[in-house]
Design a protein that fits this description.
The protein is α+β, with helices and mostly antiparallel strands and about 220 residues long. It is about 45% helix and about 20% strand. Helix 5 crosses helix 9. The longest helix has about 45 residues, at about 1-45. It is globular, with a radius of gyration of 40 Å. Mean pLDDT is about 80; it is low at about 1-45 and about 55-65.
């Protein structure tokens, strides 16, 4: 009988021990699971990086030629009244007179009596032919034009538009009326633009006090 009682006592003790241990085991499992889930969430969060906003391509292209551009800009003095900074402080005819590459144009403007007209105008655009552009005209013909004020005025005002035009936005594909009442067309992209399908812009976006200037390699005949 004593052996049977002892056996029963032992079984009871084991059962009680198991019953007491079970909640702790369940709690431990629950804690481990939560800890693992937290680690997983942390890892997932760490691996998720905020996306970078895409670059505004249109805006980047629009500002590509925001300042002076083109091979002809190398002829502009680096400092003094004929530099970009110097020309920006003077009205357009005066600014042109400070640029050695535009001396023939300045002579023509003076002979036509347009210095004051151009200097006093506001928000205009001048397509300014270089000395080399005038040199393309046979010398006899150029002399004849320079001494014919009416014809000369017609030619020079054919290079002036009564509104500000900047590259690239305004020169990519445009048609504008000149002060000579003729149509002037522009086309191109980036830093390459043509005027009237004949003249190339060799130094664009030159600022003066009252005008935007685009220096071109060919005289625009009406």
């Amino acid at each position: 009988m004593r052996a049977i009682r002892t056996s029963r006592i032992r079984r009871t003790a084991v059962a009680v021990t198991a019953a007491v241990a079970l909640p702790f085991a369940l709690a431990a499992c629950s804690d481990d699971s939560g800890s693992a889930d937290a680690g997983s969430d942390s890892s997932s969060t760490a691996s998720e990086k905020p996306e970078k906003p895409e670059e505004d391509t249109a805006e980047a292209e629009a500002t590509t030629a925001a300042g002076p551009f083109g091979p002809g800009c190398a002829a502009v003095p680096e400092d003094g009244e004929g530099s970009f900074d110097g020309m920006a402080k003077a009205p357009v005819a005066t600014a042109a007179s400070n640029n050695p590459a535009l001396s023939t144009l300045v002579t023509a403007v003076k002979k036509a009596g347009l210095v004051d007209t151009l200097n006093s105008a506001e928000n205009i655009t001048v397509f300014a032919p270089t000395n080399d552009a005038f040199a393309k005209i046979p010398k006899a013909d150029l002399e004849k034009v320079l001494n014919d004020k009416e014809t000369l005025t017609k030619i020079l005002t054919n290079h002036v538009v009564g509104e500000p035009l900047k590259a690239p936005a305004d020169l990519e594909n445009g048609s504008y009326e000149t002060l000579a009442k003729t149509d002037l067309t522009t086309a191109g992209s980036g830093e390459s633009f043509k005027v009237n399908d004949s003249a190339q812009v060799v130094c664009g976006n030159v600022e003066t006090a009252n005008a935007d200037v685009h220096i071109i390699d060919t005289v625009l005949m009406p």
